Predict the 3D structure of the following.
Amino acid sequence: MKKFFKKLWRIITNRALLIALALFVQLALFAAVIVFLSFISVSVYIAFSALSVIVCFFIISKDDNPAYKLAWVVPILALPFFGGMLYIVLGRRNMRPKRKKRIRKLSQKGRDKLQELSDDVRPVHERNAKLANFVEKSSGFPVFENSAVKYYDVGEKYAAALIEELKSAEKFIFLEYFIIDTGKFWDSVLEVLKEKAASGVDVRIIYDDVGCLFKLPSNYDKTLKAAKIKTSVFNRLVPSLDIRMNNRSHRKIAVIDGKVAFTGGINIADEYVNEITRFGHWKDTGISVRGAAVNSFTIMFLTFWAASENQSDVDFEPYITFDYPVSSTEKIQPLSGDPNRGQIIENSFIQIINNASRYVYINTPYLIPDNETYTALCLAAKSGVDVRITMPHIPDKKMVFMMSRSFYPGLLKAGVKIYEYVPGFLHAKSLVCDDDVAYVGSCNMDYRSFYLHYECGAILYESDCIADIKQDYLTTLKECKPISYETATDVTFLTKIARSIIRVFAPLL
């Protein structure tokens, strides 16, 4: 009986449950007040309905994604007495002006420092040079030479390399991950971090509060700080009806001494390295970068650290290195996606797809493209480009998987080839095109990554690593099931209805 009550108490006091309950109560009270006022007075009902019409015109006139507009206009018109106020409360995606101003200042300082460090080079191919110009002007991240990239085709190799590099740290260790979960992988990392922090190494960790909500104990940052590990929890989840709670740090970054950096799709949790099995074999990818381009990841992390800790300034100088042991003409362009600066990574994808002449191979765990990306994929395939997309066969989120599959028929009809990774869950986020450009990073091909999350990665030009990415893609295809148009459309009537409804609200999920 004692164990039962102890377990019940843990459930009742669970932070996620309490926050969900508080949000539900707020939403219910909000709805009840609006409905009550509308029923007791015809004039109030008319006023709220008029407000909804005005809000609809406001949404339509905004310079925003059409699908996002539609996702709001439909419920507002369906519930005119309620929808307008709901949008006013939940429809804002921009951060508060004061915070936005501070982050803009920090970001500009990072951009200025990167321009000082820039190699001022461009890819040889004209189309890639244009892409590099776009990324630099949009995000401030330039192209670097004197850098080398190593590709990891599974999480196990990535984890082994990361831990070895952590052991060699002498000055600083910066880690930023969407998910950190207790287990063998994290325990191995944490053991090294504690040892290094105790010896005077500057060890810092940023983890996302939502990403770790069900993974780490509450106030785990205090445990890490007690071990001399500086810790910042990004965008703490609070029981507030605020759409900005959707802005998560989905990035995966590790920087050691300014000599080597890691990025990709791999979080620090056991399923990513197949220490435990959740959805079959977990297929993921990542890269390590050495040389001049590492400074971009250092600045990327420090800017985000200062923003997350509400600091007004940041000092990059102690962490910048000019000791480049790599001499290479490979060109690497790290980049960071920011929901307040537009769809930088998505637009990079679109440029690559539009400029492809032979092939584009894409790995993504979620396929929920907006109209721009969807159109680019279809046009490329119709133009004769070999467009292939690899998805998981065993999903981690069934509703999201259903939504992803709802895009299959249209893409297949246009000539896009879609495959599902039969052994399990494919979590890799990569793109390779025409043997001369590739992307590896944290960004999924969905609305959340494109519009709401902070993301990161690297675009590779004229790099030996591109051949490795392509070969891994082709090798992975041997374990994949090709999806035909007949298979994609052979679903029940109810499934078709469900897919249609879900797709309308995809930008809000």
